[in-house]
Specification:
This protein is an alpha+beta fold. 52% of the residues lie in helices and 15% in strands.
Length: 852
C-alpha cells in the first residue's frame, strides 16, 4: 500500500482491515503462566504439602473419612489461592497492554496517538527526537534526523537518515529506513510503515522487547526473611510438640499429627501471597487511573515521598499554548484583549518569520500555537508561504537556545532564514548593541511578569551554498517578541495545597524565564511571596555545600538545563528527601533514573523518558501524581493492617494447638479446622484489606519514613496483644464449658465458633486505625460483608450436616451456649478496639515524656 508524501494517511477502516490481515505489531513475548503451571505452583507450597502429609497420617490411622474431608478442603483452599493468583496475573497483563509503546500517526487526515501494537503497514507515522521507532519505517521527509541503531548493529554512533522525497533515493536504501526498536536521537521525520511485528528487522533476528521487571522489592525481601525465620522456628516447635505428645501419651502418629497441625498454624504462608496481590493490584488500580507503574518497587515508595520536583509546561499548566501578545520595537498587539482586531502591518513580518521558524507539522504545543495564529491573523496576505521549500534547519541545542530554518522562495535567489528561541539567545544571534538589548530585555521582563512565555524572532538572508555550520554566521535582524500563554490547570492549586497538607514539598524546575516561572509558581501555590528562586546560571556557580544551603528555601528553579536537573535531584536526595520527579525529554532520563520515583509524561513525553521512569502519567496531569501518592500511602497502610491481622490471628491458633497437649486435654484444633480458618484468613488478609479505602487522615499527615519496616515493633506488639487477649478469652471460655460437664466435642465446637466469630471481629476492627470501627460500616468494603456471610454459611453447613460435623469432631451445642459464644466475640471486639486506641496514646505519652 503506497501513499504520497503529505497524504492524510490511512482511514480508520483501512487500518482495521490491514490489522486483521497483518496481525498486531508485537513480537512474541513471554506468555502469562498457564492455568496448569499456576496450579502446580499452588500445590507445591509448604502449606499444601503439610496438608497432604496430614491426609496420609489419617489414612494410616484408619480414618478414611477424615482423610477425604481434609483433601476436599485442601481442594477448596487451593481453588481460593488459585483464583487470587489468576486475578493478580490478569491485573499485570492489563498493565502490559497499557505499557505498550505508542506511536503518533496520521489517520483520517488527523494526528492521533495510538498503541504501537495497532500500527499496520501503510500507516503514516510522525517521529521526533526521543521516540522509540515503533516499526520498520520508510522515511518520506526528514529534518536533521539521526537514529541510534546500536541494538541492531552494535555501533554506538548515531546514523544519519534522510527522507525519500528529500534526495530521490529509492525506498530500500538503508539511509531512508529506520528500524523497529531503534531510537531517534535528533531531528524529526515522517514515514510509512513497511514492516511490523515478526516481519520487522527486530522480529527477524528474534529479539524480544524488555518487559516490566520482576525484581524483588524491599518489602518482599523483608517478608522472605520473616517467613523463613518464622518457618524454621515453627517447624522446630512443631517437632518439639510432636515429641512431647509421644513422650506424654505414647502415640507417635497422633503426636506427628499434632506437630503438623501446629506447623500449619504457625507457618505464615499468607505473607508472600498478600504481598504479590497487594503490589499487583496496586499497579492495576493505578493503571485504571491512567497511571502506569513500570516499576513495582515504586508503588511501595510512593507513600514515603517527601518532595515532588515538577516541570511547568503540561504538568502545572494545560500544555495548550496560545499566542497572547506580539511586540516589536514599532508596534504591539494583544490577542487576548482584541481577538477580532486586525494585526498591525508592522507585526506581519514578526508573525511570518515566527511561522517559518516552526515546523509545518508541529509536534510542540508552542509551535502549534504560532502556526495556528499565523493561519488566522495572516490569512489572505502574502505572508504565508505554502510553496516555499525547506532547505535545512539548525535545531535547538544546549549551547544555543534558538533554532533556525532555511527556506528557498520561488522568486528569491538567496536563502531566507527564520530563527526563534529564548530572547537572550536571539539577541545574541543579532549582535545587538547593549542599549537596544537592554530595552528588549526590559520588555521581556514585563511580558514574563504577566505569566507569558516569551520567544524572540529574527530573520536573515544568505546568498549562496554551502550553508554554514553555525547559526552565528547569519546576519540576523531582530523582528520582535511573541508572548505565549499556557493557562494553569484549574485543579493544580488545590492539588498543591493537598501536597503541602500531606507534608510533601513541591518545587518547580523549568527552562522558562525567571519572571514567567515565578508567576506560574505563585498562581499554583508552589511558591509564596518569600520563596526563593534560582536560575541555571546561579546553579552552575554554586558548589555542593552552597547548593545544599540554598535548597532549604528555594522552590522555583528556572532556566535549568536538562543536565542540571540531575544535579538538583542528587542534591535533594543527599538531604534525605524521597524525590519524585516529572520529566518528558530525552535529556531528562538521567534525572528520572536518579530520582527515587521517576515520573514520565505519557502524552507528550519521549519514549526514552518513559523507559527511564518508574511511573508514567498517561494524561500528563499533576493531580494524577497526587493520586499516585494517595495510592502509595493506602497500599502501605493496608499492608500493615493485614500483617497485624495475620500476627493476631495466628496467636490463638498456635495457643489452641499447644495448650491442650501440655495440659493433657483432647486436641482442640485438627488440620481440618486449620483449613477452615485458612478459608477466612486468606481472603481477608488479601482481598478485604487490599480493597480498604484510604484512612481519613492519611493525606494530612507527614510521609512515612523510608526506612520504616512492615514488621516493626508497633505492628508486632499490636498483633501480639490482640491475639494474646483473644487466646486468653478462648481458653477461659473453653475451661468454663468443660467445667459445666459438657462433652469434649461440645467444648471444641463452641470454642471454634467463638474463634471464627472473633476472627471476623478482628478483621472488622483492623480495617481502620484512626476511627472507631463502626463509623466506617460495611458499605465501604463489600468484600468483608461477603466473607462474613460465606464464613457463617460454611459454619451452618458444618454444624447442620451430620457427616461433616463428625469429621470436624463437633457436636451440636445447646442454644443457650450460642449466647456465650457471641459474648466472647463481642468482648474480643472491645479488646481489639482498646488495643487500637491504647497503643497510640501510650506512644504519644512516651514521646511527650522523652521530649520533656
Amino acid at each position: 500500500m503506497s501513499l504520497q508524501p503529505g497524504s492524510g494517511g490511512l482511514t480508520t477502516a483501512q487500518a482495521a482491515e490491514s490489522l486483521l490481515k497483518s496481525g498486531p505489531n508485537a513480537l512474541p513475548a513471554s506468555r502469562p503462566l498457564s492455568a496448569a503451571r499456576l496450579l502446580l505452583d499452588v500445590v507445591s507450597e509448604p502449606m499444601f504439602l503439610l496438608l497432604v502429609a496430614c491426609g496420609i497420617i489419617y489414612l494410616l490411622l484408619g480414618d478414611r473419612n477424615e482423610a477425604l474431608m481434609l483433601l476436599g478442603f485442601v481442594c477448596l483452599v487451593m481453588g481460593t489461592t488459585f483464583f487470587q493468583r489468576r486475578r493478580t496475573q490478569r491485573s499485570l497483563h492489563a498493565l502490559g497492554d497499557l505499557s505498550c509503546p505508542r506511536a503518533l500517526v496520521i489517520r483520517d487526515g488527523k494526528q492521533e496517538r495510538i498503541a504501537g501494537r495497532d500500527l499496520v503497514p501503510g500507516d503514516l507515522v510522525l517521529l521526533a527526537e526521543g521516540d522509540r521507532v515503533p516499526a520498520d519505517i520508510e522515511l518520506l521527509n526528514a529534518s536533521n534526523l539521526t537514529a541510534d541503531e546500536s541494538m541492531l548493529t552494535g555501533e554506538s554512533m548515531p546514523v544519519a537518515k534522510h527522507g525519500r522525497s528529500d534526495t530521490g533515493d529509492t525506498g530500500d536504501s538503508p539511509a531512508c529506513l529506520v528500524y523497529s526498536g531503534t531510537l531517534i536521537t535528533q531531528g524529526t521525520a515522517s514515514g510509512l510503515v513497511v514492516a511490523t511485528g515478526p516481519d520487522s528487522a527486530l522480529g527477524r533476528i528474534g529479539a524480544s522487547l524488555a518487559s516490566m521487571g520482576s525484581e524483588l522489592t524491599p518489602i518482599q525481601l523483608e517478608t522472605r526473611r520473616v517467613v523463613s525465620h518464622v518457618a524454621i522456628g515453627g517447624l522446630c516447635l512443631a517437632a518439639g510438640l510432636a515429641l512431647a505428645y509421644w513422650w506424654l501419651r505414647g502415640d507417635a502418629l497422633q503426636g506427628l499429627l499434632a506437630g503438623l497441625t501446629l506447623a500449619m498454624a504457625i507457618l505464615p504462608e499468607e505473607l508472600p501471597v498478600i504481598l504479590t496481590l497487594f503490589l499487583g493490584l496496586g499497579a492495576w488500580r493505578l493503571g485504571r487511573e491512567s497511571i502506569l507503574a513500570r516499576s513495582i518497587p515504586a508503588i511501595e515508595l510512593l507513600g514515603a515521598t517527601t518532595l515532588l520536583c515538577v516541570d511547568k509546561t503540561g504538568t502545572l499548566t494545560a500544555n495548550r499554548m496560545d499566542v497572547a501578545r506580539l511586540w516589536s520595537e514599532q508596534s504591539a498587539h494583544d490577542c487576548q484583549r482584541s481577538p477580532a482586531a486586525a494585526l498591525p502591518e508592522e507585526l506581519h513580518g514578526l508573525l511570518e518569520y515566527g511561522v517559518l521558524a516552526s515546523h509545518r507539522r508541529a509536534f510542540d504545543p508552542m509551535e502549534s500555537a504560532i502556526v495556528e495564529t499565523g493561519a488566522r491573523l495572516l490569512a489572505h496576505t502574502e505572508h504565508l508561504h505554502a510553496d516555499w521549500q525547506l532547505i535545512d534547519d539548525y535545531p535547538l541545542s544546549r549551547q544555543m537556545l534558538a533554532m533556525s530554518r532555511v527556506w528557498r522562495s520561488p522568486d528569491h535567489g538567496a536563502f531566507l532564514v527564520a530563527a526563534k528561541g529564548a530572547p537572550e539567545a536571539i539577541i545574541d544571534l543579532c549582535h545587538l548593541p547593549p542599549a537596544r538589548a537592554a530595552s528588549i530585555a526590559a520588555q521581556v521582563l514585563a511580558m514574563a511578569n504577566d505569566g507569558l512565555r516569551v520567544i524572540g524572532v529574527a530573520s536573515a538572508t544568505f546568498a549562496a551554498s554551502p550553508l554554514p555550520d553555525n547559526q552565528h554566521v547569519f546576519d540576523f535582524q531582530f523582528l520582535g517578541l511573541l508572548g505565549l500563554h499556557d493557562p494553569l490547570r484549574p485543579e493544580v492549586p488545590d492539588a498543591v495545597a493537598q501536597c503541602h497538607a500531606a507534608g510533601i514539598r513541591v518545587v518547580m524546575i523549568t527552562g522558562d524565564h525567571p519572571a514567567t516561572a515565578l508567576a506560574i509558581a505563585q498562581q499554583a501555590g508552589v511558591a509564596g511571596i518569600a520563596s526563593g528562586l534560582m536560575s541555571g546560571v546561579e546553579l552552575t556557580a554554586l558548589d555542593d555545600a552552597a547548593l545544599q544551603a540554598r535548597l532549604v528555601d528555594t522552590d522555583v528553579f528556572c532556566r535549568i538545563a536538562p543536565e542540571q536537573k540531575l544535579r538538583l535531584v542528587q542534591a535533594f536526595r543527599s538531604r534525605g528527601e524521597i524525590v519524585a520527579m516529572t520529566g518528558d525529554g530525552v535529556n531528562d532520563a538521567p534525572a528520572l533514573k536518579a530520582a527515587n520515583i521517576g515520573v514520565a509524561m505519557g502524552a507528550r513525553g519521549t519514549d526514552v523518558a518513559r523507559e527511564a521512569a518508574a511511573l508514567v502519567l498517561l494524561n500528563d496531569d499533576f493531580s494524577s501524581l497526587l493520586l499516585a501518592v494517595q495510592h502509595g500511602r493506602r497500599l502501605f497502610a493496608n499492608l500493615r493492617k493485614a500483617i497485624v491481622f495475620i500476627v493476631a490471628v495466628h496467636v490463638p491458633i498456635v495457643g489452641l494447638s499447644i495448650v491442650p497437649v501440655l495440659l493433657g486435654w483432647p486436641l482442640l484444633l485438627m488440620p481440618v479446622h486449620i483449613l477452615f480458618l485458612q478459608m477466612v484468613i486468606d481472603p481477608a488478609c488479601s482481598i478485604v484489606f487490599e480493597a480498604e479505602p484510604i484512612e481519613a487522615d492519611a493525606m494530612v499527615s507527614k510521609p512515612r519514613r523510608p526506612d520504616m519496616h512492615l514488621f516493626d515493633r508497633e505492628i508486632l506488639v499490636r498483633g501480639l496483644l490482640q491475639g494474646a487477649g483473644l487466646l486468653a478469652m478462648l481458653l477461659a471460655f473453653h475451661v468454663c464449658v468443660r467445667s459445666m460437664d459438657y462433652s469434649d466435642a461440645v467444648a471444641r465446637t463452641t470454642t471454634f465458633l467463638s474463634l471464627v466469630a472473633s476472627n471476623l471481629g478482628l478483621i472488622y476492627v483492623n480495617r481502620q486505625w484512626t476511627e472507631p470501627s463502626w463509623k466506617r460500616g460495611l458499605k465501604s468494603n463489600r468484600a468483608f460483608a461477603w466473607i462474613g456471610l460465606a464464613a457463617s454459611l460454611l459454619l451452618l453447613l458444618v454444624l447442620g450436616v451430620a457427616t461433616i460435623r463428625e469429621l470436624f469432631a463437633f457436636a451440636l451445642p445447646d442454644m443457650l451456649l450460642l449466647l456465650p459464644c457471641a459474648l466472647v466475640a463481642a468482648l474480643s471486639i472491645v479488646w481489639f478496639e482498646c488495643v487500637k486506641w491504647v497503643l497510640p496514646t501510650w506512644r504519644w505519652l512516651r514521646g511527650a515524656r522523652l521530649r520533656t
